[in-house]
Design goal:
The complex is a heterodimer of chains A (278) and B (325). Chain A is an all-alpha fold and 278 residues long. Chain A has a domain at 63-231: MetI-like fold, CATH 1.10.3720. Helices cover 76% and strands 0% of the residues of chain A. In chain A, helix 2 crosses helix 11 (242-277) and helix 8 (179-208) packs across helix 11 (242-277). Chain A is globular, with a radius of gyration of 23 Å. Chain B is mainly α. Chain B has helices at 2-6, 9-12, 15-23, 26-65, 84-90, 93-126, 132-144, 147-158, 165-168, 182-209, 214-222, 227-238, 240-255, 259-264, 274-284, 288-312, and strands at residues 68-69, 79-80. The chains are: A mainly alpha (278), B mainly alpha (325).
Amino acid sequence: MSTARTKVWWWVGGLLIILYCLFPVAWILSLSLKAPSDLDNGSFLPTQVTWQNYQLILTGQASDLFLPALRNSVGICLIATLIAVVLAALTAYAIARLDFPGKAFVLGLSLAVSMFPVISIVTPLFNIWRSIGLYDTWAGLVIPYLSITLPLSIWTLTAFFREIPWEMEQAAQVDGATTWQAFRKVIVPLAGPGVATTAIIAFFLAWNDFVYGISLTSTEAARPVPAALAFFTGASQFEEPTGATSAAAVIVTIPVVVLVLLFQRQIVAGLTQGAVKG
Amino acid sequence: MSSVAGAPPALAEDDRPRGRSARSGAPRRSDRARQEARLGMLLCAPAVLVLVAVVGYPILQAVWDSLFSYRLTNPDAREFNGLANYALILTDPIWWQALGVTVLITAITVAIELVLGFGLALVMNHALKTLRPALRTAILIPYAIITVVSAFAFLYMFDLTSGFVNSWLPFVADGKDWFATFGSAVSVIILSEIWKTTPFISLLLLSGLAQVPGDLAEAAKVDGATAWQRLWRVTIPNMKAAIMVALLFRTLDAFRIFDNIFIMTNGAAGTESVAFLAYRQTIQRLEIGVGSAVSVLLTILVALIALLFVKGFKVNLAASTRGGR
């Protein structure tokens, strides 16, 4: 009987973890559905569900602040992710498959960069970007974002690429496939999932950035969502922007939740693979 | 980073390319090897150049700027003043307060996260197949959510007007302003940090758990060891590497805490961290000289922590993946 009882306890533990993980998310969602008069009701749930906070940031007066920020975030993060994954794919391929001196140097360098405090690069970049005109531009954020996305991509992709049975490419060629066919039919399906997972994790990191976002932008020309959230103001100066901020927070959390729901297994593998395989 | 150089994971299973070139015959072997080496370095070059340009160049610039009395509001008065900025910072109680807050937050969050993360990993390890995908999804949400969003969630939770915590907790006065005093403000900051980053630690620990040989625990069980003994004598010693790597990454990550503090207190009530101090000096007060010096000091501290782990605790970084944020 003890196994049945332990089973119940593991279930309870699992459900507690799910509750722990989702509680703050549920709270911000509930908050975003409250009317202004309802915000200080002191309870978790709204007394009446309303969409007016979403209207405020999507079509109302706060949309001038939120929509450009959303566009900036999506654009800048996608570009930074794409560049990082392409560069990392070349590097990881070389490390996993070729014999050359300096492999340890490349891995060590990317590890050192990933440990680097972002704020320490912001100080000089703030000054340099102002003098060469990159301050408050997309490029001015894409470049520093590479310091976040590239090291991680190199490590994760290297771990993935080491698992690929590369000799299958040659086997296909021996069987009469052209180089292009061997690449498209054998290598792409083998390497694709690792590349996609790496891109997702790199995108999460870029999407999460706040330090570069508030330090290197000043207007809606390049300001990303996390920075814009900090600049929301209420409908009047006596009103807190709580509702609008919550609604915006929910909207930028949607892509994260969708990616996690679709790719949870791959993301966990990407986050831990190198640690397991060594 | 010499331990990284000492045990590159790449070399372990790298006999494939060598075997391939050996097949092509002895005389052409060194030629091919040289070609392969050149291609390898060529493929790595773009990424290495980007990393050096994006991080190496700015940090050298920061070191240089930190030696000047330099204010953007009065750029003409820029002049070399040696280590005066460092002397100014290291004799200022504001720096020591920020450092103390940073160390406090780091120590408490990492200690709690390690225990909590281990519990989460154990549950995930034992969870039934039906529950596992839901667990994995749930646990990735705090990891992947924007730190600023989680900071707002906790801010509004404890906020005087929009919060519900005061009415939920029976022993707390309804009028308690959590962000008015240091102790309670730091507690909320720590709470949000723990919520957000424990899943990352638990995933690393879970992969460490998978490495513990199952027959070892089984053998200990047969020998009459209690569950508690098996945990301490078998499980934990066998996943020491994973624990140390998780500790290192989270310590460095916690040490640069910024987002939560910015959103929740904006540095008020004595909650300013070192990273926040650097931001305030540079971006808000436009004191490039002093701000750069704070940044350089933070970098040195982070490097020292990494060195302590790598040399002192012999963490084998080559056996790990990345730093999570």
